[in-house]
């Protein structure tokens, strides 16, 4: 646990709106809080350094220290139906993923007394009944990970008999008979708890969190030595309400429950036989929920103070600086202009969906050399890998090896901190996302270009109306994740005459969805192909949150080139190379872009990887939607052999989808094209591009070029189609 940290309920707000701050501090002194406006979050002394304007006169406060806690892991809970006086059975169908990890609850009606069906410490199905005394029994047959079982526990109080059973469903070597065991004894009266818990042992906090899928948990009258088929007192059907947090009970008492910490829904169940690939077409095949002991959608901390954005506070990047004794933290957020207004011609779209998808990415390379570099540059010394208590990102795996498909910002956001370094980068600062994107903000301030800020979350909520009035909208370095709404809004903006600038690489790549009830949570299914951190399982390519076919936008017929003119082509190390300006750039149609840029090579230094073209590279491709009249202005060169071509462009070890040699696809391209209603698009196609803006050494080519583009793009004079 960090000594001082916190999170906020929203990442952006308008004047008049509230942001709730939820803190945890182990200190004894109060936590001092002051507002700052953030201009540069890159601590590297080779660049502008951290630049923050103190706004204590606008907001400062002090709150008592207190430690706030939460439980990591997901489970389900529902009211317990009236339990019979006579024999009763708990049952479920399960697909355990780490049966050997220790005791795990499956269906638990357990308070100080009660009855539970569990995976026991022995890795077998167990039954436990507790009154004045406790009886337990194990099948003695170890559960095998990633196999389906019907499991049950029966308690017959008059006979004092406790039975447990498990029956493998489609086992690998053909049908097997059920296995079971029983024991007898007396436990005295049971006082039933008010709730039944799924995937954990009941309690506050819950314990014994389960890893794996659970389908069709039920409470059944009677006791059974074979798989129970009796009258259901309660039967929860997880194939219903998949996009919700609700657990629907189809039994007579309607004991509807809910999930906690967003386990994965829309998961293939024991009935799935690859006849349907979408849960929306065959919900009954998708009756399973995959629970993980590493899920976390909401820490649920109390609010320590609320900040009401004052009227007149300019749109921009802000943070609350927290101090308690020697401990410090900083919680960033954005101020969006008042609704229906704009206060600048340029709108910077901050990719908060991508920030959240990457939230608390525990990278594999948080080693001593990285930590030494962080200390050397004065970076933030909080590394996600050290803090599993705040849960990881969708670039990580759960403890059972399955991919993390949800992320939520209702938890400390270690990767969204001024001075957070993502990479060991000796040629630059090693920044990504939040801190890297301040390279652009610093450039705009240095150039005297006024800007407003809006976020992906705002755009997803408001659509085109949010940005329609801006002459120019620009992205930052890595707008990778989009909902249908944000992508539609940007395309409509472009097509209605907007001027759109894309300053990143690997943008507009993955399709994500926000949860209808927990909009802070985002879902990503890493289906089919693409450069990805894990692979979704067969049949699980459709989002639970909205039912859409997830994965690459390209697989939904919307390659990035169709919006921005360039799309993902190659990935390699955070190692920047320059661009060479091409002869076509000197054509009068586009030569204004390079006014004052006499040199042929630009971007050969920078704060991200030491060059403007690096890490992830995008290129134009007419086949994927780049307009025919697009001008390729510049192309990167000199990338190391460590760069690879993205999977979706590779066919064999020799051939590629565009039929060019693979090594030729390792390139970033800067492109420009006009649109029919007087608008235009300018894209740079590299994640590290913005790192060259504050200082690329020598003649400032990238900064001069971008300043020319922005100044022309905010000029209302229409562009003409060639
Ligand atoms: Fe990415």
In short:
It comes from Acuticoccus sediminis. The protein is mainly beta and 722 residues long.
Task: Provide structural commentary.
There is one protein chain. The protein is mainly beta. The protein folds into three domains: about 5-70 and about 300-330, Sandwich (Immunoglobulin-like); about 75-290, Jelly Rolls, CATH 2.60.120; about 345-355 and about 395-530 and about 540-715, Class I glutamine amidotransferase (GATase) domain (Rossmann fold, 3-Layer(aba) Sandwich), CATH 3.40.50. The protein is about 10% helix and about 30% strand. It has a 16-stranded antiparallel β-sheet that branches. The termini are far apart. The model has no long low-confidence stretch (mean pLDDT about 95). The structure holds fe (ii) ion. Fe (ii) ion binds near residues 478 and 480. The site of fe (ii) ion has 3 residues, from loops.
């Amino acid at each position: 646990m960090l000594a001082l940290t916190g999170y906020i309920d929203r990442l952006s707000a308008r004047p008049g709106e509230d942001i709730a701050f939820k803190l945890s501090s182990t200190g004894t002194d109060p936590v001092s809080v002051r507002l700052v406006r953030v201009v540069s979050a890159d601590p590297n002394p080779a660049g502008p350094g951290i630049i923050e304007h103190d706004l204590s006169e606008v907001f400062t406060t002090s709150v008592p220290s207190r430690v706030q806690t939460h439980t990591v892991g997901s489970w389900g809970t529902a009211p317990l139906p009236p339990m019979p006086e006579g024999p009763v059975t708990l049952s479920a169908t399960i697909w355990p993923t780490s049966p050997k990890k220790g005791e795990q609850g499956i269906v638990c009606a357990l308070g100080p007394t009660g009855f539970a069906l569990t995976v026991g410490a022995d890795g077998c199905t167990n039954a436990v009944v507790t009154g004045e005394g406790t009886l337990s029994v194990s099948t003695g047959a170890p559960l095998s990970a990633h196999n389906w079982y019907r499991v049950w526990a029966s308690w017959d109080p008059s006979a004092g008999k406790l039975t447990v059973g498990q029956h493998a469903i489609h086992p690998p070597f053909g049908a097997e008979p059920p296995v079971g065991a029983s024991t007898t004894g007396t436990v005295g009266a049971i006082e039933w708890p008010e709730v039944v818990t799924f995937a954990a042992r009941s309690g506050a906090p819950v314990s014994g969190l389960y890893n794996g899928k659970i389908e069709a948990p039920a409470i059944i009258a009677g006791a059974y030595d074979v798989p129970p088929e009796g009258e259901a007192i309660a039967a929860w059907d997880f194939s219903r309400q998949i996009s919700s947090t609700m657990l629907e009970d189809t039994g007579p008492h309607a004991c509807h429950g809910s999930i906690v910490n967003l386990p994965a829904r829309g998961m293939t169940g024991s009935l799935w036989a690859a006849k349907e690939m979408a849960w929306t077409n065959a919900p009954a095949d998708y009756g399973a929920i995959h629970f993980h002991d590493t899920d976390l959608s909401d820490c649920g901390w109390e609010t320590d103070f609320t900040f009401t954005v004052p009227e007149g506070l300019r749109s921009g990047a802000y943070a609350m600086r927290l101090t308690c004794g020697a401990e410090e933290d900083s919680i960033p957020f954005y101020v969006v202009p008042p609704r229906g207004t704009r206060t600048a011609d340029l709108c910077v779209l901050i990719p908060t969906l991508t920030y959240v998808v990457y939230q608390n990415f525990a990278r594999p390379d948080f080693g001593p050399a990285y930590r030494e570099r962080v200390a050397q540059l004065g970076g933030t010394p909080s590394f996600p890998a050290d803090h599993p208590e705040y849960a990881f990102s969708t670039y990580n795996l759960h403890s059972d090896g399955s991919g993390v498909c949800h992320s939520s910002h209702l938890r400390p956001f270690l990767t969204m901190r001024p001075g957070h370094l993502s990479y060991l980068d000796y040629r630059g600062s090693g920044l990504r996302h939040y801190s890297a994107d301040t390279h652009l903000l610093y450039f705009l301030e240095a150039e005297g270009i006024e800007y407003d800020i809006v976020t992906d979350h705002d755009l997803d909520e408001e659509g085109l109306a949010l940005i329609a009035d801006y002459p120019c909208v620009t992205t930052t370095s890595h707008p990778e994740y989009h909902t249908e709404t944000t992508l539609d809004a940007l395309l409509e903006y472009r097509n209605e005459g907007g001027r759109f600038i894309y300053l990143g690489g690997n943008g507009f790549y993955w399709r994500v969805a926000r949860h209808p009830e927990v909009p802070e949570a985002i879902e990503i299914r890493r289906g089919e192909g693409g450069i990805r951190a894990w692979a979704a399982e067969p049949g699980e390519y459709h989002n639970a949150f909205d039912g859409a076919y997830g994965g690459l936008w390209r697989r939904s017929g919307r390659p990035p080139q169709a919006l921005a003119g360039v799309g993902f082509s190659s990935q390699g190390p955070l190692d920047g190379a320059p661009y060479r300006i091409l002869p076509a750039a000197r054509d009068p149609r586009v030569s204004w872009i390079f006014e004052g840029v006499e040199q042929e090579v630009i971007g050969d230094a920078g704060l991200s990887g030491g060059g403007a073209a690096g890490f992830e590279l995008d290129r134009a491709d007419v086949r994927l939607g780049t307009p025919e009249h697009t001008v390729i202005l510049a192309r990167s060169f000199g990338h190391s052999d460590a760069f690879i071509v993205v999977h979706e462009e590779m066919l064999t070890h020799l051939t590629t989808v565009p039929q060019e040699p693979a090594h030729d696809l390792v390139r970033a391209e800067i492109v420009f094209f006009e649109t029919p209603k007087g608008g235009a698009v300018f894209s740079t196609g590299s994640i590290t591009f913005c790192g060259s803006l504050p200082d690329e050494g020598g003649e400032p080519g990238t900064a001069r070029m971008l300043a020319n583009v922005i100044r022309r793009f905010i000029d209302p004079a229409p562009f003409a189609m060639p």
